[in-house]
Amino acid sequence: MSSLTRPARTARSRARSPMAAPQSFLWTRRIILTLLAGFVLLPVYVMVSSSLKPLQDVSGKFQWLPSTLTVQPYFDIWETVPLAKYFVNSLIVAGSATVLSVTIAVFSAYAVSRYRFRGKRVFTVTVLSTQMFPGILFLLPLFLIFVNIGNSTGVALYGSRGGLILTYLTFSLPFSIWMLIGYFDSIPRDLDEAALVDGCGPVRALFQVVVPAAVPGIVAVSVYSFMTAWGEVLFASVMTNDATRTLSVGLQGYATQNDVYWNQVMAASLVVSVPIVVGFLLLQRYLVAGLTAGAVK
């Protein structure tokens, strides 16, 4: 008899445990999480539903359920504006800016983290202080610099992909350096010393020992640099022309003087978001580890 009632007593004791959360808390948490999920997913639903509607349905009174479903906007977006060209431009610019930013940041952060040199503190403070200024302050100086360089040397930086890549480095590189400094500081120096004892030089020790251990931090920096360059609008609207225009600026082409193709805007916005979403899902575990590593030493 006692053996049969023992599981029931154990279940009641667990239910009455002072460490267990009360039912009111559990229901409150569920309600709040449901509201937050609805708040986040509502814009996504509006975008998806609007991209599957004819233009007259999107331009009129908003309807939660589409009266007519069509995928024609996903075909029209490539003809209304040269979206494929803008996509290639954004991919080249964002990819090149990410590769350059991460490469330079790895060497710079490793030097600051592992070596002592004159002006080290000034360098780190200067790198961090650049994040205090809004980007619009650099717009006019960079514009004048690129125009003067083009007039003096014939190198056309203004209106070119190379000029836009250099522009993106001005605000992605300082953050990348500062973030990797903290990550490299969290990696034990014994690994470097062991590699040096085994006959590796500093550069070889960096790539064979430190970089593999710093993959999460490097991935986090890469994702940040790519996302920043992919969705940037201010500099891209000034530093590009019709041949080098990126997606963030090219989406404005769906708004004409006579009408705004809202269904195509929503469809194009979903299409250009695919690389970011796919990349985030594939690199999510590295991104979370890279953002949290180095925070506590």
UniProtKB/TrEMBL annotation:
Q: Which residues form a coiled coil?
A: none
What Gene3D superfamilies does this protein's entry cite? MetI-like
Q: Which UniProt keywords apply?
A: Cell membrane, Membrane, Transmembrane, Transmembrane helix, Transport
Transmembrane ranges?
Answer: 86-110, 122-145, 165-184, 205-227, 261-283
As for membrane topology, the entry says: Multi-pass membrane protein
Keyword Secreted attached: no
- Give the location in the cell: Cell membrane
Where is the ABC transmembrane type-1 domain positioned along the sequence?
Answer: 87-283
- Top-rank taxon of the source lineage equals Bacteria
UniProt record similarity statement: Belongs to the binding-protein-dependent transport system permease family.
User: What's the name of the protein?
Assistant: Carbohydrate ABC transporter permease
Organism encoding this protein: Streptomyces sindenensis
